[in-house]
Design brief:
The protein is an alpha/beta fold. Helix content is about 40%, strand content about 25%. The chain contains five helices and six strands, in the order αβββαβαβαβα. Strand 5 (about 85-90), helix 4 (about 95-110) and strand 6 form a beta-alpha-beta unit. The radius of gyration is 14 Å and the shape is globular. The relative contact order is 0.16.
């Protein structure tokens, strides 16, 4: 399935931070919005994502939008909730610089879930479909 085909269907959820579509039983796609991340918006978004997958961590492909760097409490909440909400994450960076920065950040400290950055949806989908999260 192409990204265009996927997003032509109705979304399964929407928050201030992203719109979500289901790819398969274990995977969702998110088109993020350039909304500032706060403790409140992260908490609300986490609750939505958990509800989309019966409170079980889900594989996520996310198209990253530009947004301001969140404050420390927001980053701490996001880091705490990451492995409780997502089983694996494929990030589609809008440009090479964003991808480089993401890789640099996660290169310093190993993320708690499988994560990888891509330039397109198809490559992200191929990778995440092969990630074994049953361990």
């Amino acid at each position: 399935m192409t990204l265009e085909e996927l997003t032509q269907g109705p979304p399964v959820g929407e928050s201030e931070l992203a719109t979500y579509w289901r790819i398969d039983a274990d995977t969702i796609y998110a088109a993020s919005k350039p909304t500032n991340r706060t403790v409140e918006t992260i908490a609300s978004n986490v609750a939505l994502v958990k509800s989309l997958n019966n409170n079980k961590p889900v594989k996520l492909i996310i198209s990253i939008a530009k947004s301001a760097v969140p404050d420390k409490p927001t980053r701490e909440l996001a880091a705490k909730e990451l492995p409780l909400t997502y089983a694996a994450m494929a990030m589609i960076a809008p440009n090479k610089l964003t991808g480089f920065i993401i890789n640099l950040i996660y290169g310093m400290k190993k993320p708690p879930i499988p994560m990888k950055t891509f330039s397109d949806f198809e490559a992200a989908q191929r990778w995440i479909s092969k990630v074994d999260v049953t361990k």
